[in-house]
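4.2 Preliminary Data

To establish feasibility before requesting continued support, the project team ran the inverse folding procedure on a target of 304 residues. The structure was first converted into the token representation described in Section 3, and no sequence information of any kind was made available to the design step. The complete token record follows.
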């Protein structure tokens, strides 16, 4: 048994055709058939049933396929790890999680600097909520998180390192023709009671929404969303309102939120947040990772 035979089994199971699998593997049909037959003889199990309709896994073959895939996956993982161990400077990674829809400056900075600085760096980036980011940073599952915090939540990150980048205001976003845009006075709690809400997946917004309901009574919530296009659609077509940070709107990977009207709410809520990097003081970042984070921070400040 060898890895080639296992790979041939995996590919043949995907194509259900000896000729198509052979073409995908760039080998002859007879060579593929011989390798599969050798493996079946060694295992003592018929893996494939060959008929005029194609070459398909037998029930026994289906049972063994997951083990074949696991072995090939472990082989690839071993080779990848060995490559990193042999040349650590050529194989670095940076895992970042961020809140809400602020993806644009992260990706543009990485893409712009890739050919000159970051071609040896693998960037893993995804959107998560605050508590998930804190948990993963604390457990060193990711290298850094970009979060928005208020002073009331400082205790939740007491054992981590927070590096501020900018401050931002929370605003109420609504459609340009929403009645709130025609107020000639500061918005009030009574005004909020006339509205339907949509929410970004953000636990700070959840807490704020809960506090507003303590004062206003139940407020109708239409949708919870983590995409700017979807939010713009709900706000404009269903005439909902949503909370969002000015910084967040400016850094969205699309321009949908700029189509909405932004209403100041500083007279009824604490609307100031600090945005910055959350890292673990016990986790050392590589030189390239630190450089990329610094460049992203500079880009974020330009858009603040």
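Position-by-position output of the design step:
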């Amino acid at each position: 048994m060898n890895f080639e035979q296992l790979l041939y089994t995996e590919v043949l199971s995907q194509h259900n055709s000896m000729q198509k699998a052979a073409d995908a593997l760039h080998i002859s049909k007879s060579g593929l058939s011989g390798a599969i037959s050798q493996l079946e003889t060694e295992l003592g199990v018929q893996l494939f049933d060959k008929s005029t309709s194609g070459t398909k896994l037998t029930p026994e073959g289906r049972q063994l396929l997951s083990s074949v895939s696991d072995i090939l996956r472990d082989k690839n993982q071993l080779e990848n790890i060995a490559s990193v161990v042999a040349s650590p400077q050529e194989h670095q990674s940076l895992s970042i999680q961020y809140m809400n829809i602020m993806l644009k400056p992260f990706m543009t900075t990485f893409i712009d600097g890739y050919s000159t600085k970051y071609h040896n760096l693998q960037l893993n980036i995804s959107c998560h909520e605050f508590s998930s980011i804190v948990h993963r940073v604390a457990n060193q599952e990711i290298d850094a998180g970009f979060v928005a915090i208020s002073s009331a939540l400082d205790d939740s990150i007491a054992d981590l390192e927070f590096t501020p980048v900018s401050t931002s205001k929370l605003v109420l976003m609504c459609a340009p023709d929403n009645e709130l845009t025609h107020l000639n006075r500061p918005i009030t709690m009574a005004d909020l009671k006339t509205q339907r809400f949509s929410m970004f997946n953000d636990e700070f917004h959840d807490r704020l929404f809960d506090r507003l309901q303590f004062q206003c009574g139940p407020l109708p919530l239409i949708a919870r969303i983590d995409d700017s296009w979807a939010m713009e659609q709900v706000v404009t077509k269903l005439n909902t309102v949503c909370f969002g940070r000015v910084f967040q709107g400016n850094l969205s990977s699309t321009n949908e939120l700029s189509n909405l009207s932004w209403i100041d709410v500083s007279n009824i809520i604490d609307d100031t947040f600090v945005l910055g990097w959350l890292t673990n003081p016990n986790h050392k970042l590589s030189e390239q990772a630190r450089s990329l984070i610094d460049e992203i921070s500079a880009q974020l400040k330009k858009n603040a």
